[in-house]
Design a protein that fits this description.
mainly beta, 4-stranded antiparallel beta sheet, about 55% strand
Length: about 280
């Protein structure tokens, strides 16, 4: 192996349902992968020389592959001298710490409360709460110890220092062995007067963060219409009042395209356009 830095390419084969690949310049979402399908991602890492101890590579410029149904995996490199040799990294090699139900964030007086529901929780140690003002760079703002209970479990966390504008949140459940995965991201904007917002829009991965702003408490009907006016999806949202956001999982069979979303409660109705990839 040469004494200068050697770039080696890694081929990551994804054998799982959903994967988000984070590159050095920021997260790159590849969306949903159907069961049985695969995808190849080429990623450069740097093998630093000299090697200490001998024949043990020191790797930098690594990436992290994360998704909705496997633990995070850091890209690796083979311990072989040949350049451009592939490494196959299986993403389903670790058991998942939890299975998420719902995840929502809503304004509570001058604070923002996070509430999430766990459907299964096995060997989970804690839930780290991370926050961002731009949806890209997250910092830990607290953690909640896992209860280890059976059945459906509900957790809450209060952010007493929300931003005046955007507040992005994600959860990092960590199991007792240190493996972890990230939840979907929810966004609450405390300054926007728009009654209905989507994030991201266009929607990728069939998950959309729906924010309702300054609306009365109650049950709202969330309906998705296709280009011909047919209803392709319907869900009820129990809004706590004020500004609140939650993640909605759209059907995996939903085709990409432009849709109209109608939010309705009694005589109140608001309609917005949403693009699905």
């Amino acid at each position: 192996m040469k004494n200068n830095n050697l770039l080696k390419k890694i081929l990551i084969i994804v054998f799982v349902i959903t994967a988000n690949t984070c590159f050095a310049q920021g997260p790159f979402n590849i969306g949903t992968i159907n069961a049985g399908d695969s995808i190849v991602i080429i990623y450069d890492v740097t093998i630093n020389n000299p090697l200490v101890p001998s024949n043990t590579p020191s790797i930098s410029n690594q990436g992290t592959v994360s998704g909705g149904n496997f633990s995070n995996v850091v890209t690796d490199d083979p311990d072989t001298p040949a350049p451009n040799d592939p490494t196959i990294t299986l993403l389903n090699s670790f058991p998942l710490p939890v299975t998420f139900g719902t995840f929502r964030a809503y304004q509570r007086n001058n604070d923002i409360e996070l509430a999430w529901q766990i459907l299964t929780e096995i060997n989970t140690d804690k839930y780290e709460v991370e926050k961002s003002s731009n949806g890209r760079t997250f910092v830990k703002i607290g953690e909640i110890t896992a209860t280890g209970g059976a059945g459906i479990i509900n957790y809450t966390f209060l952010d007493i220092n929300p931003n005046a504008g955007d507040n992005f949140y994600r959860l990092k459940p960590v199991d007792i062995d240190g493996h972890f995965k990230y939840s979907a991201i929810v966004r609450v904007n405390l300054s926007n007067d728009t009654q209905l917002m989507f994030y991201p829009n266009p929607v990728t991965g069939k998950q959309v963060n729906v924010q309702m702003n300054k609306l009365a408490k109650g049950r709202y009907e969330f309906v998705l219409y296709n280009a011909t006016g047919q209803i392709v999806f319907k869900q009820y949202i129990d809004h706590p009042g004020g500004s609140a956001a939650e993640v909605i999982q759209l059907p995996a069979s939903l085709n990409g395209g432009l849709y109209q979303v109608r939010l309705k409660k009694n005589e109140f109705t608001v309609t917005k356009s949403m693009i699905v990839y």
